[in-house]
Amino acid sequence: MVRGRNRWWLVAVVAGIPALALIWLVTAVLRAATSDDPLGRGPREVPCAEAPKFGGARLPTGAYDTCCTVEVWLDTRYAAAFRMPRAEPAGRLGRTCPGAPPRTGFRLGDTTDLCVSVGFADGCGERMPGEAYPGFGAHTANVLVDHEGPATALVRFSAFTV
């Protein structure tokens, strides 16, 4: 009897391994099918000089409370959020992309005061010292400016490929 039990235990272990592998495979397929990021590579922080440059801009010298991220999977998306003096964003957006001046009519909820959305065909971007044309790596760039108070503006920038 002792010999029979040892063999059944071995058979149970050998039969269980393919069952566990099948469960793991089904879980992996379901996760990939229902996720926007199946490989688990969510946004990661990057230096704040990198995000605006991808969209043909530079981080303003007076920017503070900066947070910049990148997501890469099927396309690339850089995002930057920072605060700056309230009086500066409108003029800065106009210099960055003269063909697409900031608009005040579009509002994201009740808080967006200025916005600009430009594509690669608009020829936007700030001229960097020593460059004939800026490195505009994104297909589209969006800037939203929220006036938080009499002296502060929150700027949210995103640049991405399609």
Could you explain the architecture of this structure?
- The protein folds into 2 domains: 1-34; 44-160, no CATH class.
- The longest helix is centred in the first third of the chain and has 33 residues, at 2-34.
- The protein has helices at 2-34, 50-54, 89-96, and strands at residues 44-45, 64-72, 76-85, 114-119, 140-147, 152-160.
- With 162 residues, it is an alpha+beta fold.
- It has a 6-stranded antiparallel beta sheet with strand order 1-2-3-6-5-4.
- Helix content is 28%, strand content 27%.
- A hairpin with a 4-residue loop joins β5 and β6 (152-160).
Outline the fold blueprint.
Elements: H1 2-34, E1 44-45, H2 50-54, E2 64-72, E3 76-85, H3 89-96, E4 114-119, E5 140-147, E6 152-160
Antiparallel strand pairs: 1-2, 2-3, 3-6, 4-5, 5-6
How many structural domains does the protein architecture include? 2
Radius of gyration: 25 Å
Give, in order, the helices and strands. Answer: HEHEEHEEE
Distance between the termini: 68 Å
Q: Helix share of residues?
A: 25-40%
User: With helices defined by DSSP (H or I, 4 residues minimum), what is the helix count?
Assistant: 3
As residue ranges, the low-confidence spans are: 126-134
Average predicted local confidence, pLDDT? 75
Strand content: 25-35%
Largest sheet: 6 strands, antiparallel
Major sheet: order of its strands? 1-2-3-6-5-4
Q: What is the 3D form? A: elongated
Using DSSP, what is the number of strands? 6
